[in-house]
Amino acid sequence: MCGIVGYAGTESAGPIVYSGLENLDYRGYDSAGIALVDRELTVTKRSGEVSELSVPDRPNATCGIGHTRWSTHGPPTDANAHPHTSQNESVAVVHNGIIENYESLKGQLLKEGHEFSSDTDTEVIPHLLEREIEDGHDLLSALERVVDLLDGSYAIAAVRAGSDEIVATRHESPLVVGHGDEGAFLASDVTAFLDHTRDITYLEDGDIVTLEAGTVNVYHDGEIVDREIETVEWDADAAEKGGYEHYMRKEIHEQPTALRQTLSGRIDLERGDADLDIDFPQGYLESLEEIQLVACGTSYYASQYAAQLLEETVDVRATVEIASEYEFDGGRDPWRTLVIAVTQSGETADTLRAVRHAAEAGARTLAVTNTLGSTVTRETDDTAFIRAGPEISVAATKTFASQIATLALLTVAIGRERGTLSSADARDILENLRELPGAVQQVLDEEDAVVEAAREYRDSDAFFFVGRRFGYPVALEGALKLKEISYDHAEGFASGELKHGPLALVSKKTPVLAVLTAGADSNETMNNLTEAQTRGAPAIGAVSNGASVSSLDCALTVPIVGVFEPLIANVYFQLFAYHVANMKGRSIDKPRNLAKSVTVE
Ligand code: M6R
C-alpha cells in the first residue's frame, strides 16, 4: 500500500508530483522518489519521508511520476526506493503491490545479462519494459506485453526518456486518473491531486492508460474503452480517508487487499507449503519443544488464535503470554523454545521488554510485525512482515487479520518442516487462506445488516461476546474493539464460562454476540447462548452458512473458510463496534486515553 503519483501536462511536473507525494505522506511512508522526463530521464529517490526528498532540477519537464514506499521487499534504503530504472536508464517505473514471480523473472533477466541494483520485486518491470522496447515496441505495447508476464497484484506507472507520456496499469491495486485544465493526473489515491482537479476516472483491473498533456486514453484488451468521469465531492480530510468518515472504517474495508498482500507469493499449493523467507538454522524447527507468543492487546488475541492453530494442526506446544507479564522460565531449554513477538507497530515497550528477556535467556526470537525498520525487527533473530499497509486508527483492525494470516503461514511452514503436517492438510489450510480476501469482502457487503443491529442495540447496558476454540480470542477481540472506541462496557468470555458467573450480569439490556462457526464448536456455544437468551439477553450470532439461525435475534452469515471462519466473524464485530461508536459520536480514530503505539511499560 504505497503511493503513486503521476502528471503529464503543460506545467512543470516536478512541483506537482512532489506536492502529490506530500498529500499521500500522511500515512507515514519510509522512502520516496520522483522521475521526470524531457529529453532525458532524471530520477531522485531516497529513504525517509517526502520532506527529505528534493525535486529533480528539470523545470522544463512537464511529465513525471513519483512514489512513496511502505516497504515489503527489502529494507527502506535509497536503492530500494522507487522509481526503479532499466538497464540503460531510459525507462522508470513506480509500483504498488507485489510481483509474486519476480524471482524467476529476475533469474531469466540475469541470464540475459541484466544487472540489478535493488532488493525489490519492482525492479524487474523496467528491465522487462526495456527489453520489449528494444524489440521495437512503444511504451504502451511494451507494458501490454509485460503485464502478461507478471503474477501478483499491482498498480504500475512507467515513463520513458524522450517522451511526454505516462503509461500505467492496475490489477487488484487502486489507480485513479484526474482530468485537470493543466493536464492529466494519476494516483493510487485521489488525495494526491485534489488541489488540481476533482474530475476523476477510477481504472478497472486490466485497464492500461496513457496520459499526455490534454489526452487520456484507457485501453482494455487492446481496445480503447470509455470510462466514466466522476466528480469527487469530498474535502481533503475525507479524501485522505478514501471518502470514509474515519480511518477505522477505511481500514476495516481494506482487509481484502491487506490479506492479499499478506499472502502474496508465500503460498505453494502444489507442494502444500508456505514460505515466509525465514532461514531457521538446520534442524532447529525439528527439535523445537515450545513456541511462545508474546504480545499485547489485539496482537495478543491474534497470537491466541495462532497458538490454537499451532497446537491443533502441527502438534507443537504453543503458549501465549501477555508481554508485560512475561518471564523466561529457567526450566525451559532456550534452544528448544522459539519466542515470537507479535506487534503491529514493532515499538510496544512491553513486547520489546519480553523479547529482550527471551533473547538474554538464549532463546531464538522472531518478530511478526507490520512495520519495517521498527525496533522489534532490529532486536530479533528473524522477522516476518504481515504486509497489511499503514494502519492509522488506534483501533487495530486489518492488522489483526493479517497477523493471523501470517502466523497461519508460519504454522504451515513449521508443520511441514517438522513432518507433522501432511501436504494434503497443509493444502486445506492454504486453500482456506486463499479464500479469505473474498470471504471478508462478502461480510463487508453485508454492512447494512450490522448498521441495523448497531441501531437496535446501541443503548444497551453492556455487551458480552462469547466463543470457543478459535472463537474465544475473537470474542475477546470483539469486546476490546467495542469498549475501546464506544466506551461501553464490553466483555469477552469463553462461552462455556458464561454459566460459571457472568450469567449473573445478563439481562434484556445486555446483548450477547456469539461466534457460531466452524472452528468454534458452534453447537456448544449455541447452548450457552440459549442459556443467556432464556434470561432475556438478545442473541446476535455470526453464523456459518447452513447453521440453524431461527432462534437468534440477529444472524450474520459467515462464508465457509474452515478454521478461519471465526476470523471472518470478527469483521462483523469490528463493524458492529464501529457503528455503535459512530452512532454515539465517539472520537473513533483517536479514542480517549489511548495511543496507537504504547512505548512505555
Ligand atoms: O503495536 P502492537 O500490536 O504491539 O500494539 C499492541 C496493542 O497496544 C494494540 O493491539 C491495542 O490493543 C490496540 N489499540 C487495540 O485495538
Features:
Rossmann fold; Glutamine Phosphoribosylpyrophosphate, subunit 1, domain 1; binds 5-amino-5-deoxy-1-O-phosphono-D-mannitol; 34% helix; 601 residues; eight-stranded antiparallel sheet; seven-stranded antiparallel sheet; alpha/beta; 27 strands; Glutamine--fructose-6-phosphate aminotransferase [isomerizing]
Detailed description of the structure:
- With 601 residues, the chain is of the alpha/beta class.
- The protein has three domains: 238 residues, Aminohydrolase, N-terminal nucleophile (Ntn) domain (Glutamine Phosphoribosylpyrophosphate, subunit 1, domain 1, 4-Layer Sandwich), CATH 3.60.20.10; 194 residues, Rossmann fold, CATH 3.40.50.10490; 137 residues, Rossmann fold, CATH 3.40.50.10490.
- It has 17 helices and 27 strands.
- The strands form five sheets. An eight-stranded antiparallel β-sheet has the order 3-2-4-1-10-9-11-15, covered by helices on one side. A seven-stranded antiparallel β-sheet has the order 5-6-7-8-12-13-14. A five-stranded parallel β-sheet has the order 19-18-20-21-22, sandwiched between helices.
- β2 and β3 form a beta hairpin.
- α13 packs parallel to α17.
- The two termini are 31 Å apart.
- The relative contact order is 0.09.
- Bound molecules: 5-amino-5-deoxy-1-O-phosphono-D-mannitol.
